[in-house]
Each structure stands twice: as structure tokens, then as C-alpha cells.
Amino acid sequence: MAQAFPYTYYACDCFDSNTTTSTKRASQMLAAADEEDSTFDPQSSRSNYALYPLEHLLYCEDCQQIRCPRCIIEETLNWYCPNCLFEVPSSVVKSDGNRCTRNCFQCPVCISPLIVNVLDTPDTSSATPDRHILACPYCHWSTIETGIEFEKHTGVYGQLARIANGGRPIPTPKERDKEREKRKELEARQQDSRNPLSPSTNSSATAVGDYEPPSRDEVFSNLAAFYKCQIEAQKPPNLFASGEFNFSSPSAHSRIMNLYSTTTAKKQKRAKPATMREAASELEGLTIHDPASDNAAIERIKRDGWSSTLSPTQKLAQTNPHVHFEAELRPIPTLLCTKRSKRCRSCRHILSKPESKITSTRYKIKLLALNHIPRLSIRALPPTNVPSSVPPTPGSSSSSQQQPFSYHAIRSGVPTHFLLHLSNPLFDPIRVTLATSSTTPGKVQSRVTILCPQFDVGANTDVWDDALSASPAPPSRNRGATINAETGLIEAGKVWDKGRNWTSVVVEVVPGFLQDIGSFGGEGKRAEEEGLNDDDDLLEIPIFVRLEFEADVHADERGLGDSRGSKGEKERREEAFWTVVGAGRIKELEDAKNKPKKKHAGDTGKDESQADPDARPKKRGKTTEYAEDTEAKNPGNYLAKLGGPIAMEIPADLLEKIHLYNAMLQLGLPKFVQLPLIDTLVLQMYKTNLSACHLDTLEITIGRFYSRGVAILDPVLNHLIGTYYFHSLADCTHPEPTRKETTTQDDDAGRTDFTTTKRKYLGFADHSANRQAF
Amino acid sequence: MSGQPAPARPAPDRRSSTVPKRTSLLPKPSSIVLDSSVLIAQHAQLTGTHPITIGPNTVLHPHTKLSSALAPVVLGEGCVVFERAKIGIGMGAEPDAESRQSSRASSRNSASTRDSMRSEGTVLAKNVVVESNAIVEAAEVGEGTVIEVGAVLGRGCIIGKYCTISASSIIPPNTRLPDYTVVFSGSQQRIDKTLQLRPEILDAKVTVHAKQLDMFKKLIPNNIAKWA
Q1: pLDDT for res A746
Q2: How far is CA A704 from CA A415, A595, A707, A709, A717, in A?
Q3: Is B98 in the A-facing interface, judged by CB distances under 8 Å?
Q4: What angle do CA B170, B172, B174 make, to 5 degrees?
Q5: In this predicted structure, what is the pLDDT of residue A751?
Q6: pLDDT: which is higher, B19 or B95
Q7: A139 vs B contacts (CB less than 8 Å)
Q8: Which of A39, A602, A752, B146 has its CA 20 to 30 A from that of A83?
Q9: Where are the domains of chain B?
Q10: Would the CB atoms of A110 and B200 count as touching at under 8 Å?
Q11: Residue ranges of A 125-144 with Cβ closer than 8 A to chain B
Q12: C-alpha angle A390-A395-A397 in degrees, rounded to nearest 5
């Protein structure tokens, strides 16, 4: 979705209410019910039609529901011409069509409005009538180019209807009818008096050479007259026949009805009604394609060039879309615009009704969702400073200040905080409950946590009420109150900030990784690199919002009489809807593509983590502003403080730990960053039987290590070297991945010749050693 | 006499006779040939080293910029140049002095390598109207052409007679437009006009143009003394 971040869409659940339940089978209904319970998935194709920004939604007060543009019925109030702003009554629209019939035309070339101009005559005497033309002020096209000039500057539509391009007059329908009748009689007489032996000659007045193919209007009028005749011929003479006649063919139904309609006494032979035939001659509207006209068109293109032809847009905008050349262009009458009122589809309550006056843009009735549904908006929360004992020096903090938050480049794996802001348009305070699934649906799974899922939002009272109220308004809450002073964490369960009619809470998001990086080698398969679709890297969070509030029962009858009815009665109301909050786009990790062994911060399984808070490194001197941490996450599982540059989970699998260690070595990360990893890695190495795969990996690590010339006092390697001796023979000899049967093998079995294996240097270990239990 | 820079930030009333006027850093045109009937308004700016020739009855509105830094500029008879229009090669680029030098150097290089049949320069024929904010770097603009607001004519263009370049159109360099062309809707479309068919409309336009010139002469105070 090409929207500016961050955005909020609201889901209208009308898509499943259109079909009546009777058409669904039971199994489908169950499935639908399941769907409703599950999380709203913004990536599904159906949700494309259900999500709208709040400004697009209306609200039905009777149904107490959001109405989206798809569950709304529109009715036109009035038609008007956008050019002359003249209101056209609907009866005239039905008869004359949906175009302006006064003086409003659009240029056929550039669709800008045409202006009536007067051609100056050199002599100012009024002997010659004024010639008017239509001219376009933008592209300078005018009707001179097609040879049309007319006399008056009003009633242009009527004048144009009588003049064809080139100045020839167009006959009116009456004239055309008369003409047609005359020609029919002429032809009939000709046929009667035709001599079968003499060749047929056209004895009409016009010579053959002047014959022109009939224009589109002529053909249309001929055809219309012909069909009218046919329909009349089909009509049964008696009055009792069924009105439902199928004109095209004498169907069995109509025949039978014919039989039964007459009294059985009369046994008149009913003649089969003649089938309707199609037009057979030119007078009836038949046009036979003449290849000569095509040749003429081709010659014309050769002569006048490509620029004399029309573009498809220009052609389609014309009344006759089968024109090809510029000389056949006609001014386009302006299409009428409408003013419409909108109704709720289910209860027919009017939701939006504009004023009848054309020039006013106001609305008589305007039930917007903006006035009934709280507005949810999200923005990134800038990181705040921990109130530490050491105040950050200006130089250091500015140097480590991150760039302004970019919504298009959210980093994967880094917990990011967003501020969710709800503003309440109602006149009653509401209690809001937010819910979202722990991971976003879709390919990229980001973890979302709303730190304060339930909170109150104040009523949208007047500003003055608040100011003049007796109780002093609470000062705007210090934002630092939500941050625990000691640990610098954002406290869950508390709102971030609160105002007169709005509240904001913090949402923590750990964006997922775009490419599901499979572990290397061990499982033997690469993660399917299907490639991400266009919008898969969007961070969209579906949030379910539930409001509870107490509203006046008879709110709509306020003002009718205070004593009447129960004025102060409040009823408890509840509303719920899904929203999708678009928080940004996740940026791809650059280094994730190149290295074969990748960093893997698994989303899975943090259960076996060794929860030692001591593993967290001490606060680094320079980055003092990343002090936010949540209690929800297990801190020991992280390499560094959350919010720092490296904050990732230590993976559970030993192999992945080794990978990570390897990568850190290669990157040359400082030791304190590696410390927690080293601790857990060594611990795990104690506990597991190292398989060949692990050994391979560790060996490569050694190789990398030594290639960098780093000191050998590395705890991991020390441990490896020290305990290598104790590893089972089977492991050492078989470089394949771990097989299931290794545990059952006896150590003495299968003495191998190490020179043939990968591990030639293990020649010393040709005696087996018992696996020591640790 | 020194030319003062046209973008004068202080209001005119701030200038007092005791404070010396800032001398312009821009090079003065080597020769400005003005007819006596030319109307040059208050803050018009004529700069550059090549000669500038302005024909009779021409009107230069305030804040117009004629630059002959790279090539001479010739305005024909009856031309009207509206406010903030820029005429001359090199005006299309950033009008800073530094980049003008660089563009001058680059254009010199390109000029040496380019062989053009026409001599360099910008020539506006008679009765050309250049509206506000237009940038005319064209080699030649034909008679009676109207260049509307914000149009950009690239270098080396040759525009025919009685053309209309509609607002905000961009004409790429070295294009050739035949007579009576209308460029509209961006730079893409061109269409020939009804002027071809009805010369009386042409005549009407010419008379209207003459009346316009008269009006300008009455309304705009002439600052020609500075340049003559």
C-alpha cells in the first residue's frame, strides 16, 4: 500500500454479512466462525477490501456499527453540470441523457472547457450574421478545424446537433423519417416495375458516384424505426394475450398461452407469429462493410500523417467512438455530476446527505466514524535517557544519537518502541482494551507486545469545561514516571501519557527477519527462498480494539424535552473492531545475504535459556541512552542490553551457538559482547556429545581464529582442545552428521585408519576412551 | 555606471543616497544596443559579456533577467518579457555565480566539441511574449510566439512562428518546432492550430499585442537611463 507511514486502517466486517446465512452450508459456516475468531490478517487478499482509513468510514447510529463504502447504498439527489452549475431535473436527465444540453462542451483533444468565441468580421455592418465558434483556450483547438460555425452564442448544443463537420446540415429525426418513408416507397415501386430482363439500375435521382455511406446517426434511426415496426408486427391483435411476449421467437410458452388465452369456443387458426427478422437493406439499417472505406482511411493516413489520427482516449470520449481522424472530431458535451446521499445497507438510515444547493458543500446529515470511533495512531517512540547517575555529556550523547527514526528502514531483531495514541471523540469516557496476537501474521513474523492493554480515555468535553472545573486538572504526566527509575525499563501496565481526551500507550515490537535463515548444514536443507512479495516487509500490526462506555440511552432525542422519559439513564455499550496499524517497513539485513553462515537469532525456543542476569554486560560507557528493557523478556538470554546495537537471543542449538561464536570472532567483536555467549556455549559443550558437525564447525573457528593471529587464550578453544581427547571415537572418525545410532555403538568397535579420513591428525587417538560423565 | 544586483533584499526606501550602492559582481555586458523606444523596468537585470541587442518597442518587466554570459542575446521588435523570466543560455542551470562559472566552463568545452550550424545565441523574433518565470535558452524563437508561464525551453531549440508553448511545458534541448505549433500537456503533445487557417485571427492578435505594448508604456516607469 503506497501510504505514508505510519498509518492506521480500520476493518469493516461487512464482507461476510452480505451473503445470507441460508446460502452457506453448515461446514462453511463453521469455517467462517473460525475465521472470525482468529486474528485478522492484513496480508490476506480479502482484507484488502475490508480495510479503510478512518476518514473513509461512516457510522450508523441505529446499527451502531461502522459502515464502509462497500456497505453503503447511494442515491442521487440531483444532477448538475460542473461547468455552468446548472441543476438539471431528473426527468430531463432521463429523457435527454446525462450530458449538459446548454453551452458546455469539452475540447475533444485536451478535454478542457470550450469557450464560445465570435469571429470578427472586418465590416462592422450587421448585414452578415455573426459567426461563432467554440475554441479551446489550452490547446487552441477550435471548431474552425472541423468547419463548424454557428450563429448564436446560446443554445449551442441544439445548433451543433444540426451541423455536421464541414458545415453540412444534419437532418432532424422528423426529416429523417420523412426521408426514409419516401425512399421506401421509391424502392417498392422500383421492385414492382422492374423488368426481369433488364439489368437493375438505380433510377433514383442521386448518381451512383455521390453515394455516401450513411452516418452513424442515420443508421441508428433506420435501425430503430425498423425494430419498432417489427415489434408492432408481433403484437397480437387481441387484448387478452399475455403481455409477456418473447418477440424474437415464438416460444412454446407464448404459444401455449396464446392457445389458452382465447376462448375455446373459437377455434381460430392462430397463425404462428412471424419471427422477427434482422435488417435486410440499408433503409432498414443494414450496413455492409465496404473495404473501400478502409482504403480511403489508409490513403488519408499516408497523406496527413500519424498526427492526424486520434488517440484511444480521444476516441472513446467522443459520442461516436468509431472515428479515426481529427477532422471527424466533435466537441464533447460535458458530463453531468451528481450529488448523492448515502444510506446504511441494512437499516436504511441516512448516513450522509448533502445540501440540495449545488454550490454549497455542506451536509445536512453527516454521520462520520470520526465522531464515533476513537482514532488510533502510531508513531515511533524516540528513545529516552535513563536517569543515571552519570549525566551524559553532550558530546557523547550526540555522537551516539541515532539518526531520526526512519519508517522505511526498521531493523530486524531490534526491539523498537512505538507510541499508540488513542483519541476519544465521544462525550463519555471510555475504557479501551487492546489485543493483538503475539506475532504478526504473514511471512515475516514480528513479535508485538502492548505494554498496557487496558486503559481509560477521557471524554471529549469542551476545553473550557476542563479549565473551569473545580478539581485542578492533573498536570501532564511526566513521561519519566512510566520508566522505572532504577532499571530504566518502561513499566508495563501504565499508560505513557494522558490528556483531556486522549491517551497514549507504548507498544514494543521486535520486527522479524525477512529471510527465514535456515541453519547451515545440520538440517541439510536451505530455507525456501521463495522471495518476498512486495509488501511482505511491511510491519503491519493487527490490533483488536474494544470500547466499553456508558452512553445516554436517548441520546438522539436530546432537546425534545428534559422531563420526558428517562434523561439521565445510561446504558452500557460496547463496541469492538479490528484495526491494522502500519508501522513501517523492515529493512533487509545487508550482511545476511553474503555470508554462508549467517547469524541466526531464532524466534523459537527460549525456554532452555540459562537465565543469568550476570551475563548481561556492564553498561558501556558511550551508549548511555539505551536504557529501556522490559521485564517481560528474559534478560539473560540476550547478548547485550536491549536497544543496543547487538541485542539478539542466544540460540538454543549448540551448532547455532558455535556459528554465532564464529561470526563474532570474525567480526572482531569486543569480548564483553561475547561473554554471555561464551558462557552458555561452554556450558552446553560440557553437556552434549559433540558430533562431527560440531567439531567441523569448531575447527573452522580455530582456523579463522588463527588466521587473525589472535591470542590463543580463548576459553572456547581451550575447552575444546582440552576435552577433544574425551570425545567418542565414533564422533571423531565419522564426519557425517549425527546419526541416531551413535549412542549405541561401542567405543571399541571399528578401529579406523585415520589417514583415510578427514581427521588425519587424530592418529594419536587410536585408543578408545570411555566417555566420562560430566 | 555600475549595475546593481536585481535581487535587492532591502526595500527601495531603505536605500539612501549617502550609502554607496553595491557594485555588482557580475560582469557587465560588453555592449548593450538599445533602441530609444525600449522600455526597461526598474529591476531588470542585463548581465553578461556578450552583446545584448534589444529591438524597438520592447518591454522588459521588472525582475527580468537577460544573461549573455555564454552567448549574445537578441530581442526583436515588440517583444514582451514578463516578470522573473530568464532569457539567455545558462539561465536554465542554477543561477549561482559559482555554478555559472562551472557551467560556462562546461559549455565552453561542449561548444568546442559541438558543431552547430547556427551561431550561438538567443534570438527572439518580433512580437514574442515570454511570460512570467519562463526560461528561454532557445536558439531562436519565431515571430509572434507566446511562451507561457513557467515554460522551459532548452538550449538550441528552434521554435517556429506563432507557436504557443503552454504553461509549465518543458522543451528538451535542440528540438525543432514547426510554425503554428502548440505544445501542451507536458512536453509530449503538439498540435497545429487554427491560426493557420484564419489569418484574420492572426491580425486580431497582432493588434491586441500592439495595444498591450501601449498599455505597458503608460504603466511601467522606464529605467532605460541606467543602461543606455
Answers
A1: 44
A2: 31, 14, 5, 9, 12
A3: no
A4: 140
A5: 52
A6: B19
A7: 166, 182, 184-185, 189, 191
A8: B146
A9: 86-222
A10: no
A11: 135, 138-142, 144
A12: 60
The CATH architecture that domain B86-222 belongs to is: 3 Solenoid (2.160)
> B200 to chain A: which residues are within 8 Å by CB?
119-120, 122
Within A163-287, residue ranges assigned H as helices are 173-192, 216-234, 252-261
CA–CA gap between residue A565 and residue A327 (Å, rounded): 74
Q: What ipTM score was computed for the predicted complex, to two decimals?
A: 0.75
The CA distance from A121 to the nearest CA of chain B, in Å, is 9
Mean pLDDT (chain A) is: 72
Q: Cα Rg for chain B, rounded, in angstroms?
A: 18
pLDDT above 90 covers what percent of chain A?
11
Answer for the pair A751, A733: CB distance below 8 angstroms, yes or no: no
**What confidence score (pLDDT) does residue A3 get?**
65
Q: Is the pLDDT score of A105 beyond 90? A: yes
Give chain A's length: 774
Radius of gyration for chain A, computed over Cα atoms and rounded to the nearest angstrom: 42
Q: Cα-flanking dihedrals φ and ψ of residue A264, to 5°?
A: -70, -15
Query: B177 to chain A, minimum CA–CA distance in Å?
Result: 14
Judged by CB atoms closer than 8 Å, whether chains meet at B166 and A138 is answered as: yes
Mean pLDDT of A420-448: 87
- Tell me whether residues A110 and B164 touch, CB distance under 8 A: no
**B47-73 burial: b if 16+ Cβ within 10 Å, else e:** bbbbbbbbbebbbbbbbbbbbbbbbbb
Contact yes or no for B191 and A109 at CB 8 A = yes
Work out the burial of residue A340: count CB atoms within 10 Å of its CB; fewer than 13 is exposed, 13-18 middle, 19 or more buried.
middle
Interatomic CA distance for residues B110 and B90, integer angstroms:
13
Spatial distance between the Cα atoms of A742 and A380, rounded to a whole number of angstroms? 52
Cα end-to-end span (Å), chain B: 10
Do A307 and B191 make contact, defined as CB atoms within 8 angstroms?
Answer: yes
Collapsing DSSP states into helix, strand and coil, what is residue A397? helix
A contacts of B185 (beta carbons < 8 Å): 110, 139
Closest CB from A109, A120, A138 relative to B200: A120
How close does chain B come to A359, measured CA to CA in Å?
29
Cβ of residue A361 closer than 8 Å to a chain B Cβ: no
Q: Tell which wins on pLDDT, A248 or A329.
A: A329
C-alpha cell at B97: 555565480
Question: Which residues of chain A are within 8 Å of residue B204 when distances are taken between CB atoms?
Answer: 120
CB within 8 Å of A479: residues ≥ 6 apart: A384, A496, A497
Query: What's the pLDDT at A507?
Result: 87
DSSP H or E segment with residue A156: helix A156-162
3-state DSSP assignment of residue A304: helix
Query: How high is the pLDDT of residue A142?
Result: 86
Would the CB atoms of A141 and B166 count as touching at under 8 Å? no
DSSP conformation class of A251: -
DSSP state of A222: H
Contact status of B194 with chain A (Cβ, < 8 Å): yes
pLDDT number for residue A351: 93
Residue A135 with chain B: CB contacts under 8 Å: 194
Is the bond into A137 cis (omega within 30 degrees of 0)? no
**Residues B105-141: pLDDT tens digits?**
444 444 433 434 345 788 999 999 999 999 999 889 9
The pLDDT value given to residue A168:
74
Q: Output A208 or A331, whichever has higher pLDDT.
A: A331
Chain A: residue whose CA lies nearest to B148:
A138
User: If pLDDT is split at 50, 70 and 90, which confidence band does A353 have?
Assistant: very high
